[in-house]
Specification:
This protein is α/β, with parallel strands linked by helices. The chain is built from six helices and five strands. It starts with a strand and ends in a 7-residue tail after the last helix.
């Protein structure tokens, strides 16, 4: 069993991104994976400035600790102006390759419509590459029409794609576990 950290990259109280993240969390739990959840709406992170004082903030320590303990990630972001959310980019600035190196990462986006989330995912993929993460090639994008008025994911095709993405993540987690069994990585 693997420890997967889900990061919900929306700071909005009523955004759809957390609902897609919860759907992903539920799928992971049904597949008997340990799931940790970090919401950028619930956890306030100040703008990263590199000052050492920020290292001692509770929300920063919590994020780093959860990321270090994770074997893999699923990161969900809304798309804002053709990019990932500023809150998510800020959170990733607090992390480093020590948290991501050689770990598989699945990525998903919730767009404002018309499958615009692809630009947010390209932006996120670029940043994760800088953190030396192994970003899975498949990804999921949900539009507003994929949710009902309660923000529950109702589009079966999107649910199936999310389930397949999570299945791929679990396979990669198993491969990584076998590959590095008995090896200490510095």
């Amino acid at each position: 069993m693997s420890n997967v950290l889900i990061i919900s990259g929306s700071a909005r109280k009523e955004g759809r991104t957390p609902y897609l993240a919860i759907e992903g969390s539920n799928i992971l739990m049904m597949k008997h994976q340990t799931v940790k959840y970090f919401s950028l709406h619930d956890e306030e992170l100040p703008v990263f400035n590199g000052d050492e004082e920020q290292d001692y903030l509770e929300s920063v320590r919590k994020l780093r600790d959860m990321a270090r303990k994770a074997n893999g990630f699923i990161i969900f972001t809304p798309e804002y102006h053709n990019g990932m959310s500023g809150a998510l980019k800020n959170a990733l600035d607090y992390l480093s390759k020590e948290e991501f190196e050689n770990k598989p990462v699945a990525i998903c986006s919730v767009s404002g419509g018309g499958k615009g989330g692809i630009n947010a995912l390209n932006n996120l993929r670029l940043v994760l590459r800088g953190l030396q993460a192994h970003v899975l090639p498949q990804q999921v994008i949900a539009d507003p029409s994929d949710f009902n008025v309660d923000n529950t994911l109702i589009n079966k095709e999107i649910k199936d794609r999310l389930s397949l993405l999570i299945k791929e993540l679990i396979i990669m987690l198993r491969v990584k576990s076998e590959l590095y069994k008995g090896i200490t990585i510095f």
